[in-house]
Amino acid sequence: MSEAAYIGRGVHRTAVESLALKIFDGTYDEGDTLELPALMAELGVSQTVLREAVKVLTAKGLLDARQKRGTFVRPRVDWNLLDSDVLRWKLAAGAPHDFFADVLELRRAIESAAASLAAEHRTEEDLAALDGALDSMRAAGRDPVLAVRADTSFHTALLGASHNRFFIQLRRVIVPALVARGRHGRTHGHEDPVPAHAEVVRSVREGDVDGAYMAVLELLDLSLRDHP
Description:
This protein is mainly α.
């Protein structure tokens, strides 16, 4: 997840991460006003550094500032979960079950469409990436770390094979969610995931647009059955 981390240096990065943690662990709830002088002392940073941290978190939809009210935490519905840092902080804080249900609904909408596009636009390189991920999945067996790695490689390759620049970017949402599920032992359950993934690859290889769409839905239904 290193590429998802806030790109900052030293004390600036630490201030951003520390302040974000206070928001996500509930120290500051939505609507709460930040006591900036107290935060400066607590974090051991200058006013300039804290102002930079606030600016970063404001850009990510977590904070806002108004005259007479000061700097405050915005409602959760305004938090930019498509931002890789915000998603990382959310997952690290412990996302509830319904959060993963929302991710699954997103995946059903996006990955099925991506598979249809992949059936139309896939290249030999795309097919090789999908085949390689399948081979890794077979080799992983019940090893949870290797299984998650193979699964994320597969879904990244599938989004890439769509050749849609927006779908490809959504790996920044889907992959961290897959990793988080795997970290808590919630990858695939008792059913062997390889056949369902292989059916997606077969449909993509054969240029079967409708078949690829339905194969992804079947694959995601497998995940739902394993983790209701």
